[in-house]
From TrEMBL:
InterPro entries linked to this entry: DUF1129, MFS_trans_sf
Membrane spanning residue stretches: 120-142, 154-173, 193-215, 221-238
Pfam family, one: DUF1129
Entry superkingdom: Bacteria
Name of the protein in its database record: DUF1129 domain-containing protein
Record key words, sorted: Membrane, Transmembrane, Transmembrane helix
KW Transmembrane helix (keyword) present: yes
Keyword Membrane: yes
Species the sequence originates in: Companilactobacillus heilongjiangensis
Ranges where the record places region Disordered: 1-28
Amino acid sequence: MAEDLREKNKQAAEKQKVVSAKNEKKEEVKSEIYSANADDLRKKLSNKNAEYIFKLNKYLMDDGFKEDEAKAEIDKLLPEIIENQIKGIPANQLYGPVTQRAQSITHPVKKPKKTPFWASWLDTSLLFFSLFGLLYGVVALTGNGSKNDPNSQTGIITLIVLSAMWGALLSWFNNQMKKPKSERPGWGITIGYLVVGMVFMFVFLAAMSVIPTTINPPLNAIGYFIAAIVAFGGRFLFRSMTGYKERSFF
């Protein structure tokens, strides 16, 4: 029994050596293909792949490519074509019909740039700041906040931090909703994060109520309106300079 086990282990080890040798050979061949001269690769094309390349070159030139431009585009494909040719996969199976591949070269589809979180956060925060500024300006103007009690007004620091918090929370939520369904967190987790964020904001507001007005001064109605206009103008300028066009609300 022990001898049978040793024999099986020996066979497994030999089999593994064979597999490793094959993999090394494949990598060596692949390295040679991708480092080879394009003209040399053209000589290795099968008749079927050579015909594909000929038609592709014709389509590119008919679409306005110069001869050297068409050649440069095709040269980029040759290593991949040869690699798959060895595996028995022709170019029309690899890339689809010639017209389809030519279309993808002449009119490439640009992948949408992923918006960095900071850009979404800044844009949304500025929007919230202008909305809050307008709201508190109206409250101060209508006298719903006691003019004799400055602590009843929202301080400028509170307004800035609160807007930043709302911007971060909503930007995170929007990013989750833009993901494919398979990558989105469950609704339970999403709502849980939103609830935690809301609780944190209320705790922050409660904590800021004990901060003296000398540190966190409130504004009068005109001050809030001016702050709202400045924030909205800053948002417009940010969008104009960066080309940011995404909506702040999902």
